[in-house]
Amino acid sequence: MIKPAASHIWLNGQLLPSVGAHLSAYDRGFQLGDGVFEALRARRGVAIELDGHLARLHASLNALAFELPFGDESVIAGIADLLAAEGWDGDEPPGDVAIRITVSRGYDPARSVAPASGGTASVAIQAWPFKPPAGRVLEEGERLITSVIRRDASSPIAGIKTTSRVELVYARLEAQRVGADDALFLTTDGRLTEATTSNILLIHGDTCATPRLGTGLLAGTTRAWLVGHGSAVGLSMVERDLRLDDVFEADEMATCASIGGVLPVVRLDDRTIGDGKPGPRTIAMRAARESYIDAISRRGATTIG
């Protein structure tokens, strides 16, 4: 067995060794993928945009009609305890990690699809060292394909960050089979939604467009930050419906996510985007986002309004 990158996990209020049995095989997260999660960065012991991630976590929980078994303060304390236990909360060198908060509906021996009443959710927090994107990605750009999977923009679960990730796994396998880095989802009527774990950005001149909310995509926290801070790199941010033609008319394409940050995309379905190289606006957006993360970590605020 490959040893986990961290020595501990936090589970339901306790720090536990990362190696060992933690959840019952009857947990609905294992049986049915009946759970939700959030993934975020932490630096110098500061969880970046934690308030936004907790808000989205509660929105996902509300949509699936269950809740945390304790308050947010326990999750915040759990993150701090886990980072401290691993020694990833220091200033020099700054602890730079990825965090995942997973909430399952919990133990249910009945194994019915319909959840039983009165159950208690299971909450796990994991952390591992942040691994920057490979140099090739930043120097040469990512290559995407269009997945055969289509998103129903009207589906009530389209914007929920659930632990049921099988369509993302399928799409990544599609990409791997043709030597691509990731896959892009379209709606049933041909609009762009998102990549498997990131939102989409198209840059044309001084305008950066991203698919609007309500078109089958997850409301990413990095996407939201860029919508509010694009002017820092001289871009006018717009949210609107986008289609494949817009991709090939763009000067630059990028993806954005909490862990990976802003990444350049240079090809889609074997067609070149822009001049086929990572664009200067994309690189500037990435630098601005990384500078923001570092500044917030130096400020020492665990939640950002």
Give a nutshell description of this structure:
The chain has 305 residues and is an alpha+beta fold.
Number of domains: 2
Q: Uncertain spans, ≥5 residues at pLDDT below 50?
A: none
Measured between the Cα atoms of the first and last residue, the distance is 41 Å
Series of H and E elements: EEHEEHHEEHEHEEEEHEHEEEH
The CATH class of the largest domain turns out to be Alpha Beta
Helix content: 25-40%
Mean pLDDT rating: 94
CATH topology of the largest domain: D-amino Acid Aminotransferase, Chain A, domain 2
What's the CATH superfamily of the largest domain, by name? D-amino Acid Aminotransferase, subunit A, domain 2
Which structural category fits the helices and strands? Answer: alpha+beta
Quaternary class = single chain
Coarse shape? globular
Percentage of β-strand residues? 25-35%
Give me the Rg, rounded: 20 Å
Q: If helices are DSSP runs of H or I spanning 4 or more residues, what is the number of helices?
A: 8
The description of the largest β-sheet is: 9 strands, mixed
CATH architecture of the largest domain: Alpha-Beta Barrel
Number of strands: 15
